[in-house]
Design a protein that fits this description.
Layout: H1 16-25, E1 29-33, H2 37-46, E2 50-53, H3 57-60, H4 72-84, E3 90-94, H5 104-118, E4 122-124, H6 132-140, E5 145-150, H7 156-159, H8 169-185, E6 189-193, H9 197-206, E7 211-214, E8 222-225, H10 227-230, H11 248-264
């Protein structure tokens, strides 16, 4: 479907309503992770529609093997920074492990704390059956919630691997039904991670809210990647769903090496770069 001429989607502030409009019009939603103001400003000016302050910051920023060690305060700190660097994009904060699983009351309180202290536009949480009550309470109170189904990294110790989900009919039907339940509970969008493309299409076609895919095929309403993977900063993570649009790892190494050589050879700073 062609873009409606009067829909100035590249300039308008992105809201949860805008995302639903984009789905209806067939305009794909471009999403990336972000963890600081400098990167957020670049992505915002480049036209990214949605930035997720993912708990992947545990891997990318903190150097951990999993996302499980990320705290609520970590999320608040990095989300504040991303909000400060953004004007147009919708900012979603990942609720960290054990900040919403204990009870609906605790999830509600922590989501409110994130929203109030950061100024973000929404929160995201993983799973379905254990979170629908919390999602309903949040949305009724004015806290937009994004769901997350398929591969759910916070459940790595339960599943024991990062394998694709929904590859058999029983699991596929469960994910499909969970997507319907999340929509019914009030989720404004749902991330679908590492599921078969056909299942991604089935869910996307059945929902009125947008789906955001990561390894879920081309039929989702939008796509998201961890930005360090997309830009080729991290090069030791090579799942099928990652496309690298640059090789910043190599570019940065060369630039830093050149800088180091200039310092050691007394080429930097020169007279023009001195006071």
């Amino acid at each position: 479907m062609s873009i409606v001429p009067h829909y100035d989607f590249e300039k308008r502030k992105v809201t949860t309503l805008r995302l639903k409009e984009m789905k209806k019009l067939g305009i794909k939603i471009a999403c990336l992770t972000a963890y600081d103001a400098t990167i957020a400003k670049i992505f915002d000016e480049a036209g990214i529609d949605l930035m997720l302050v993912g708990d992947s910051l545990g891997n990318i920023v903190q150097g951990h093997e999993t996302t499980l060690s990320v705290t609520l305060q970590d999320t608040i700190y990095h989300t504040k920074a991303v909000v400060n660097g953004t004007e147009r994009a919708l900012i979603v904060a990942d609720m960290p492990f054990m900040s919403y699983q204990v009870s609906a009351n605790e999830a509600f309180t922590n989501a409110g704390k994130i929203m109030k202290e950061t100024g973000c536009n929404a929160v995201k949480l993983e799973g379905c059956r254990n979170v629908t009550e919390a999602i309903s309470r949040m949305t009724e109170a004015g806290i937009p919630v994004m769901g997350h189904l398929g591969l759910t990294p916070q459940s790595i110790n339960q599943y024991g691997s990062y394998r694709a989900r929904g590859t058999n009919s029983e699991e596929a039907n469960q994910i499909y039904n969970d997507a319907l339940s999340l929509q019914e509970a009030g989720a404004f969008a749902i991330v679908l991670e590492k599921i078969p493309a056909e299942l991604g299409k089935r869910i996307t076609d059945s929902l009125s809210v947008p789906t955001i895919g990561i390894g879920a095929g081309p039929h989702c309403d939008g796509q998201i990647l961890v930005y360090t993977d997309m830009l080729g900063i991290t090069i030791d993570f090579n799942p099928r769903f990652v496309r690298r649009y640059s090789n910043l790892n190599e570019i940065m190494k060369k630039a830093v090496g050149h800088y180091s050589d200039d310092i050691r050879n007394s080429k930097f700073p020169n007279e023009k770069e001195s006071y």
